[in-house]
What does this fold into?
Amino acid sequence: MRYNLEDKPRLLPMILYGLQWWIVTVPALIVLGLVLAKLHFGADSIAQGLYMQKLFAILGFTLLIQISFGHKLPLVVGPASVLLVGILASLSSSIPAIYTAIMIGGIAMALMAAAGMLKILQRLFTTRIIVTIMFLIPITLTPTILNLSFKDASNPLFNLGFLLIITFLLIVLNRMLNGIWKSTTLIWGIILSSFYLYQFHLNPVKVPLAPADAVSVTYGLFIIPEFEFGVIFSFLFCALAILIAEVGSIQAVGKMIGADQMEARTKRGVFFSGISSAVSGLAGVIGSTDFSLSPGIIAATRCASRFPFIVSGILLILCAFFPPLIQMLLLIPNVVMGVVLLYVMTTQFAAGFQMLVQQKAVIGFNDGVIIGMPLMVALLISFIPGEVTAQIPVIIRPLLGNSLVMGIVVVLLMEHLILPAKKA
It folds into this structure.
């Protein structure tokens, strides 16, 4: 390593490394944030912009707190895709009910970390279950990718070709490029593909603004909590999935760079991640988690110092107070968002298969059934007709209609009750 965990780079290298980590953080923030902002508020660009501003600010402060008081590791913070799936499955409920559930899930995460329950949960969530959850996320996001790519498309065949060709190009570029170019593949993909569409296929008009007082009525700085049992129950499963992913990310980076006191770092990291999700829920935005893509970037740059993340956190907060930047992000075409989601979810599958092979999670036929059954259940629920979902009782609809939660429930049953591993 050129810089180890506690090494402080000189000012210019620290700014450059911090800028790089900021660039790596922004794509996921843009994609997940804009998907939700547009779904929640339609053409209301004022509410969309406020959503993105709050998301940038909370993620920036979360990053600074984690680096200074939490796990103190070089980990990228971003919106939790697990929560995105939960939100999409609960859109029939009100915005306050959804984000109240996220707030409660964050509080539960923090309490579990503070009470020392991480070891128990790690035993419950075996490698097969973790791999299955990694596979469930892309499957449950497939309807969203389709909706972004083809909704209101004047030429669906063009959109299909654009979606596949640009995704293949991103995969090829990610294989060919190195260093910061590899880390910024998504950024360049968003910029160039958006430029192409506006140059040849779209009219570069601004999103129509809603009346200035509309957002104050529907969406402010904080939500008024609204409690729905079914929604809360489903998001508690999402919180468990985030907790396990958080532990995995912290452990992976910690082992890679040889960090000490990993048990304490993990406990603090999960605790502050839970607090961040609770604050996010109260503010009415998606919660955050630490991403597991840091090891590859650390290996490419040979910089494991945590201090450049201070620059990244400050940049994220500054973005929150620069509305023109947010308005510019709102102009990214929906089909480009679909491309990026397809690319990111492809890499999610790749990471899951890599863990499956490395950890030897599938040895026999029954091991494959344990993973396959919940994936099929999630696939069925993801594409179940709306009229069928409407017949599910309202109180349990967020649970039975949530493909991610049902997938997690099924894999837990398969792993521990239906097809438990035989003891030697």
